[in-house]
Amino acid sequence: MKISRNLYVRVALSIAFVAVLVSMISSVFSYYTGLQEKKNTNYLLVQQLGQTIAKGAAISAYVVDIELGQEIVNGLVSNDLVKGVILKGEAAMLIEEGIVNGQQDSIVINLFHPFIPDSSVGTLTLFPDDVYIQHQAQKSVKKEIGIMLSHSIIIAFFVSLVVHRWLTRPIQNLTDSFAMIDPSVPETMQMLKVRSGKHDEIGKLTVGINSLMQELHLTISNERALREKTQELESKFRLIFEQASAGICLLDEQNMITTFNPAFERYFTAPAQQRLASLHFPTLLNDVEKLQELLHSIRLDSTSSQITLDIECRVGDKSMWLHCLFAKLTDQRAIGRDSQSNLVEVILHDVTERAEREFQTRFEADHDALTHLLNRRSGEKKLHKALFDSLKKQHHLVLMMIDLDKFKPVNDTFGHEAGDKVLIEVSRRLTSRFNRVSDICIRWGGDEFIVGRQFDEFDHELVKQQANDVLSDIMKPIYITEYEQCEIGASIGIVVGPQHGKVLHELMVNADNTMYQVKDKGRGQVAFYQKPY
Amino acid sequence: MKILILLFSLLFISFSEARSPQLVVVVNKNNAIEALSKREVIDIFMGRYLTFPDGETAQPVDLPAATALKSDFYLQLVNRDEQKINAYWARLLFSGRAKPPEAATSIEDALNKIQNSQYSIAYLPEDQLTDDVKVVYRLNEN
Questions:
Q1: Which of B48, B39, B44, B86 is nearest to A62 (CA)?
Q2: Long-range pairs for A138-143 at CB < 8 Å and ≥24 separation?
Q3: Of A305, A319, A322, B67, whose CB neighbour count within 10 A is largest?
């Protein structure tokens, strides 16, 4: 059953229901009490009736006048209240009329002698009509119920009217204006209309809602402003992160990459590949184990929070240099929760070009532009270092000072370009024979070269052989152009450190002297330094 | 004055006494009944029984209406005045079963009726008694 959802209808219905129920119950109660009361009243009436008629009945009983008795009895039975009557006199005097059996409640009136007091002549038994009494009682109860019901309905109607007027309608108004409010649109959070001059509960409720809403409106606006600010900030940060030319990534404790930006991906993605080859950061770079050690030490080191390093790496078939900044991140929100979970941020950018340029610059600074051998300054530095090493390791450092013979005529005859070609070719021949990592080849001056080589054991003959090989290399013809060639020679002075000098300067002077002695003796020779006795 | 009132009172009392002769209920001398109780007298005169206690028919005889004797008799017998007695009979006349006593025209008539009928029964002042009747009940005696 669908009951109207309107409050006032439901209130009215409930009141009506309760009222009807109460009137039913009270009617039933009053029916039974009223029935009893009516019964008593009627019994009394019947008794009085009997008393009234008793005298005549007594006379009829006294003279045993059945006809008179019958008349009296008929008169009694014709009464609505009486169902049956028994008139009993002496001897054969017994008159029964109406329904005289099946009923317990009967009224017995003693009939006394009309002339002698206190002498009984018979009895008059009256049977009140219970059905009639009940009927009467029911009738009055029906009336009562009718009145009560109409009361209930009238009260319910007026209550509903009052409820509607004072409660439902204001609440409906409140609800309607409340329905206009959409919390997602703060502009709709207007003040609810307060009925002026109303200070009842609904008025208070409205005021309460208004203040609550004002508070809420303020909070939501602040929240919104904050969110917008955060979003703006976030988009800025995102822009920085995503548009950054530097690659940025975060490493967890296992050195796995948890976050990376597009630039990072670009660095480590080979042209043919779609994604990073591995999320394990060290394996992306060349020297896996060293990098892991480095990261480990960064995590353990509590003093320095960041470290910069240039690392070479190979992506696909391309090698490049990356300048990496490793920074330990302590997430402020994670403080105290898990101090071990420190992340490492890696910011890296491609420095291949710069590294190459630096390399070039250093090379140019340290090498002779024409021959690409070490120049005198850097050569001398290297020789110092080599001598120091030899002394420390008890090795021997052999220095050959080579001065070209017959170079000036070539220069004069064929020109400077030809001279340059000769110098380049000589240098190439020198480096092809002295090609160990520790070998040092220097262009000492115009046509002067120095070659240094370390030996564990000094072998005079071996060194002499090598020097002669160099000499023969130099003496081979050199093509200046496609068709023209020239031949030059060289004078080589050899000194051995530390036997011939414990400092470089001493060795150099001795080597120079030895070389000049060779030149004086006729050039094209190899000579060891001879200690003066 | 006081003496006068006293005299009047005395006179009145003695007069009343003089107006109230002793009443007796009598039957024919030949009737077998020797005495009746007050109840039996009432039952016969008020129409309850139409017979004497021995079963013989009883014919009660009344004195003329509106006489002091009749009034006295009923007052002394059932303590009712004559009007009440008339009302009583009026009630019973309706059915016709019980009849009021036959009315005599005078005391002599009443005496005659008793002398003539063995079943008659009547009441008389004591001083009017004759030898032909027999007293069966004396009122105010019990």
A1: B48
A2: A138/A31, A140/A34, A140/A38, A141/A27, A141/A30, A141/A31, A141/A34
A3: A322
- On whether both A340 and A396 belong to a single domain, the answer is no
A246 to A269, A271, A319: CA distances (angstroms)? 15, 18, 17
Q: Are A258 and A311 found together in one domain?
A: yes
pTM (global) more than 0.80: no
**Same domain, yes or no, for A67 and A113?**
yes
Same domain, A375 and A522: yes
pLDDT of residue B6: 60
A231 within domain boundaries? yes
Residue A148 in domain: no
Q: What is the CATH number of the domain that holds A398?
A: 3.30.70.270
Nearest CB neighbour to A65, from listed B78, B79, B98: B98
Topology of the domain covering B22-138:
D-Maltodextrin-Binding Protein; domain 2 (3.40.190)
B chain contacts of residue A59, beta-carbon cutoff 8 Å: 88, 91-92
Sign of CA dihedral A164, A167, A172, A173: positive
Strands (E), A135-233: none
Domain final residue pick, A135, A163, A198: A135
Mutation to test the B interface, candidates A60, A63, A95, A112, most B Cβ within 10 Å: A63
User: What is the pLDDT, as a whole number, of residue A191?
Assistant: 67
The rounded distance, in Å, linking the Cα atoms of A176 and A199 is: 20
Q: Strand ranges (DSSP E) for A51-201?
A: 82-88, 94-98, 107-112, 120-128
Cβ neighbours of A56 in B, within 8 Å: 91
Q: Which residues of A touch B79 (CB under 8 A)?
A: 115
Residue ending a domain, among A135, A150, A165, is A135
Nearest to B97 among A56, A63, A116 (CB): A63
Range of the domain at A189: 182-243
Q: Which two tokens stand for residue A31?
A: 């029916």
- Which stretch of A225-229, B12-16, B78-82, B103-107 has the lowest confidence by average pLDDT? B12-16
Nearest to A174 by CA among A196, A199, A197, A202: A202
Furthest C-alpha separation in chain A: 208
Looking up residue A277, the CATH number of its domain turns out to be 3.30.450.20
How far apart are the C-alpha atoms of A31 and A46, rounded to whole Å? 21
- Digit-coded pLDDT (tens) for A407-437: 888 888 888 888 898 999 999 998 998 888 8
| Domains: count for chain A | 4
Is residue A151 included in any domain, yes or no? no
**CA A194 vs CA A7, A202, A218: distances in Å:** 21, 9, 20
Contact A411, A355 (CB under 8 A): no
